[in-house]
């Protein structure tokens, strides 16, 4: 069982900027296997998800503390040791659907708020264990307002993307499910 959430230091007053991510893994007898937090690093104001990778490491996904509220990622090893963390400022907090593969890579679908690439509102990332982006792909042809909602690795070289899309000027969204080959 894996429990994830936010923690704050008992030695400091409760303040949104004093929060950190917290991870606890228990065995089948509810005994602690590992415990980790990143208090006082100012990198996780919120925790959105945790993905256990094929090597037993954990990817902790959240949102950075103010002022930027960017996507915050951390890798924790299988003993609770801290490996690496990184902030991605242009991903904002609309990163959804992190999935892992058998090679230790992980993938994400995100809403593109970057001023660097306005060709598509949805992007796809392949990230390695050092939190280095190996692949960044955008999907041209999407119009209106599109927001990333989920991602599935089909295990055959394809991914299923889930996103919400509205026409320009509309307040109503359609749910779109799309299978893509990503090379």
Verbal overview:
By secondary structure, this protein is an all-beta fold. The protein folds into two domains: 89 residues, no CATH class; 90 residues. It has no helices and 14 strands. A four-stranded antiparallel sheet has the order 4-5-6-7, with no helix packed on it. Strands 8-9-10-11 form a four-stranded antiparallel sheet, with no helix packed on it. A three-stranded antiparallel sheet has the order 1-2-3, with no helix packed on it. A hairpin with a 7-residue loop joins β5 and β6. It is globular, with a radius of gyration of 17 Å. The mean pLDDT is 77.
What's the quick description here?
The chain contains no helices and 14 strands.
Given the C-alpha coordinates, what overall shape results?
A: globular
Record the strand order, biggest sheet. 4-5-6-7
**Topology as H/E string?**
EEEEEEEEEEEEEE
User: What about the largest sheet?
Assistant: 4 strands, antiparallel
Number of strands: 14
What percent strand? over 45%
Radius of gyration from CA coordinates: 17 Å
Unreliable residue stretches:
none
Distance separating the two termini: 34 Å
Q: How many helices in DSSP terms? A: 0
Quaternary state, please?
single chain
Give the helix/strand class. Answer: mainly beta
- In which range does the helix fraction lie? under 10%
Q: In the residues, how many domains can be counted?
A: 2
């Amino acid at each position: 069982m894996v429990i994830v959430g936010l923690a704050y230091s008992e030695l400091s007053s409760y303040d949104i900027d004093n929060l950190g991510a917290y991870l606890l893994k228990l065995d089948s007898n509810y005994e602690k296997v590992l415990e980790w937090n990143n208090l006082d690093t100012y990198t996780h104001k919120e925790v959105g998800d945790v993905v256990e990778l094929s090597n037993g490491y954990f990817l902790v996904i959240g949102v950075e503390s103010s002022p930027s509220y960017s996507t915050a990622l951390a890798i924790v090893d299988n003993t609770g040791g801290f490996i690496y963390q990184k902030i991605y400022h242009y991903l904002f907090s609309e990163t959804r659907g992190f999935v892992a593969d058998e090679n230790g890579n992980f993938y994400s679908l995100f809403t593109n708020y970057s001023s660097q690439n306005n060709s598509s509102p949805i992007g796809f990332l392949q990230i390695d264990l050092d939190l280095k982006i190996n692949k960044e792909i955008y999907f041209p042809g999407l119009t209106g307002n599109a927001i990333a909602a989920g991602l599935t690795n089909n295990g055959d070289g394809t991914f299923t993307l889930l996103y919400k899309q509205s026409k320009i000027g509309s307040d109503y969204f359609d749910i779109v499910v799309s299978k893509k080959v990503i090379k």
